[in-house]
Amino acid sequence: MEVQVKSFDALTVMELYAILRLRSAVFVVEQACIYQDVDDKDQKALHVIGSKNGTLVAYTRIFAAGDYFKESSIGRVVVADSERQHGYGRDIMIASINAIDAHFKTKTIHVSAQTYLQKFYNSLGFEQVGVPYLEDGLPHMGMLKRGS
Q1: Cβ(96)–Cβ(48) under 8 Å?
Q2: pTM score, whole prediction
């Protein structure tokens, strides 16, 4: 998987379309969750794009501290259903963690994680903070990776 990090303004129309299509396919259709994915936060984010043979297979968006949460953060973590067996979720998260360090000069990162993915995020150094909550009707928890 090839990874690129781009600002909103650097995305091509086709890249933006592919990102929104993938997010909608997973977060709205697959998870049967009716919510407004296009939330006016993409413009502030850096977009971490994972492609294979020119096709988007994994994606996150990352934020500087204060742009979404108090800490830098990673959100909209998604891997295409047909590509989940390749470990791209871990790959895109590692690329996102490294991009936060490179672009925002911090190692402290917040994620709002779906609770069923707690072990996955734990394996990347994130720890639960606070109590679980519902976000868009799905169980989530705050998780923090503290800088070292």
Answers
A1: yes
A2: 0.96
CA 34 to CA 147: how far, in whole Å? 35
pLDDT digits (tens, 9 = 90+) for 36-47: 899 999 999 999
Angle (nearest 5°) at CA 64 between 99 and 128: 85
pLDDT digits (tens, 9 = 90+) for 18-60: 999 999 999 999 999 888 899 999 999 999 999 999 999 999 9
In this structure, are residues 95 and 58 in contact, taking their beta carbons and an 8 Å threshold?
no
What's the mean per-residue pLDDT of the chain? Answer: 96
How far apart are the C-alpha atoms of 137 and 49, rounded to whole Å? 27
